[in-house]
């Protein structure tokens, strides 16, 4: 019982803190790649704290409801991850958040929100099946969907699921809103999108979506960590390398359109997963 | 008299009596009273059936008449009626299929079946009970809503004299037939009711008597006649192989090896696929959307199309572990995927619902084909949840349609401002289709875990469920797209409409909470004969060796989240309300910006329907081709 | 309570997000504003981000004169910014109408329609001056909040 409580608390605390730090690191790294100095490490926290205490400005009250649902879902997903629950269940809960964010954006009347929301839906459409297939890969190798069993597996899963790791990389790029998949909202698309999906979320509600996003990032990194769960060192190296690669890809590619994203991600992602799953199936 | 026999008679015959009364007593008030009373009888009888289940009954005679004889005669009369419609509309396919069925029936009844055997004609187990509950409760609710709906409908189209007596005659008749279909164990009786539902569907689709309605009704009739033909052929083959017409007894183990036996099961499966409008037979269900919305809700989403599911679920243990089972799984998954893809391309609300129905039924078939305990549990849960929630969504769309005179999703933009309660109920329905902790998602989760070892199936399921999320989320968002409307003012609707929408919505949610007990009470006992059920229920968590779905904890947490969100919502009313971002050119009106010469211009951002990828024109041929190939595979592989 | 307030104020001054509105400028000022955002000046060091969306912005940078056509847009954007917010007028035009002052369609400087917090003179001002203007504005914001009466939208 106390163990459960501690784990829940860990999940609730780790999400915002680690997520914010990762985001700060990300910004510094990006700045360095662009030969800038970049903001302080704690900048994301300053931003969120500022937003939380701004005036609440509302376009449609249901947007507020959706923002709260988004943060609730993504924090529950991370807590479930810490509780070592069923991986598919975690994906579903996480998807609730993503969908609520979209519904919130659609509930505004601004065309910019709408375009962003639809693009976000297309992003969900692109990554969701792949995420399920990654989990299926875990199951075929370890015989379980439960995180307890997956973490307890005797060898690093990366060795058996190399292609699925690449597939997860695609998912991560989309989920982290990195180029070339930052279609729905990003800091660089003012001309076409304003802020897309997030255009009409403001002040404290924008802060909520940001924190929720941190939860999601940590959840995804947690899923990445499953690929090398045998020792801490390997896990750390894997995570750092993966994230570095994400930032690098973000800085050397440009934003593409959804048509390309859907065909490319489904084409490459499904092929890679199929090959990897067939291996596992035969093995 | 035996209580059980009385209940069965009530469930099957009370609607029939109600139906006949409806045709003779033609005033609105009396008709409403009859429909309400029939519904109440059905619900009460179904409730009384619960503690008695399971039981078997050899119902040899009704009121002193041999049941077998009655059904025989009725069967021929029914086929004659179908033939009559075939000749009336000069529809060759219907005539040919009708004559074929008569010939087969004659062969079966007069040449093959030797002498009356004593059967257990009624077999009411938990699966039947589940179906009876769905039919009686959901069916009655839909009939209730049909009362105000049809009044408005006839008012709108200025139908005189009223055709409502005929409408309610068929609706009630249909309820009785459905109850009969799931309660009886005798294949000839099932076949009879199967044909009755076909006829009812035909009559209701053509109810409005427009050219398009007649055309679509005829299409439904010939396709379902083809299903009937496959069914009777299947019965013949089954009888040749097993020498029995009892649904329970044809599934004896040890028969699975024989080719003809599998072919017979495959034929019955094909009949089921046609009834459930799986690809390539989807066109009749889409055409059926021209019917008044209660019809779509009752026949074409929550009950009649479930007949196919019911049959395949019954037959599944008979073909476990064969190639047939494998191909049914792939076929179902394919339907799931194709239906979802086509739904993405639709902006017509009813068509989205139709495709999503086909798609969900496909998933259930896939589960039946996977044929393990887990997958069967998923199939049955999905059957139940889908029936309730889809009925809710259809009825909501019906109510919306009557208000805004359109069923296009684009026209529902900002519906929350016009009819907030209906919009909220619809959104709740959508949420229950795609989100945890609700039952549809629970069963989808079970299906995924059960299908994980079947590569093609799981890939199709993964793709399809992402597509599903896409078209539902889009719709929910569009409904809520609304400027701040000030105080919450519920719209006015007929009482019966609220009485239909409210309970269905609450019921959908309650069923999700009680899913563990449904599983223990209804599903486990059905499966225990043929499968080793593996989930254990622990503190509201359904758990097996490789997965755990925390139903009750999830419900509790979701409730908590909801409360927080609602409190936040309440507080948000106090915030400063501003128009949405329109590059600084917003006007007082939502959606409008200030254009040249200070004129308001409407900003249009339509939903993405991805027509170039998921459009009906583009996909239908391919999907039909795929469905056809898989169907051939099913029949050929059985040989 | 006081500590919390101070904390919030510090956060505010550490993360000013900009909305840049070109209110009929000759584009000279705009180019200088955009120059601030290049790696050479790297304003992200101070947490400054150009968000381009009033709902997210804390500071409204306006360049150019107000005319009869765009004054509505300017006030609209300002109304969509959540408080506390700053308005920084950039360039001679923003201050007074500049060389366009006498034109028939021109209303004048930004202060004619919005309460301006900081004026950055120049034609165009240098990027350093613009950054300085934003920083000045933030100091003003802090001072405002240390006094008990909080600036409120009418
Ligand atoms: S101040 Fe000078 S540079 Fe700036 S807008 Fe006016 S004229 Fe152009």
Describe the structure concisely.
The complex is a heterotrimer of chains A (283), B (639) and C (154). Chain A is mainly alpha-helical. In chain A, 73% of the residues lie in helices and 1% in strands.
Describe the structure.
- The complex is a heterotrimer of chains A (283), B (639) and C (154).
- Chain A is mainly α.
- Chain A is built from eleven helices and one strand.
- Chain A has one domain.
- In chain A, helix 1 runs parallel beside helix 10 and helix 3 runs antiparallel to helix 4.
- Chain B has 639 residues and is mostly helical.
- The two termini of chain B are 47 Å apart.
- Chain C is of the alpha/beta class and 154 residues long.
- In chain C, helix 1 packs antiparallel against helix 5 and helix 2 crosses helix 5.
- Chains in contact: A-B, A-C, B-C.
- The interface between A and B is large, with 69 and 66 residues.
- Iron/sulfur cluster binds next to helix 2 and helix 4 of chain C.
- Iron/sulfur cluster (SF4) binds next to helix 2 and helix 4 of chain C.
Largest interface: A-B, 69 and 66 residues
As laid out across the biggest beta sheet of chain C, the strand order is 2-1-3-5-7
> Between the first and last Cα atoms of chain C, what is the distance in angstroms?
26 Å
The helix-and-strand class of chain C reads: alpha/beta
Care to count the β-strands of chain C? Answer: 7
Mean pLDDT of chain C: 85
CATH class of chain C reads Alpha Beta
Q: What helical percentage do the residues of chain C reach?
A: 25-40%
Helix content of chain B: over 70%
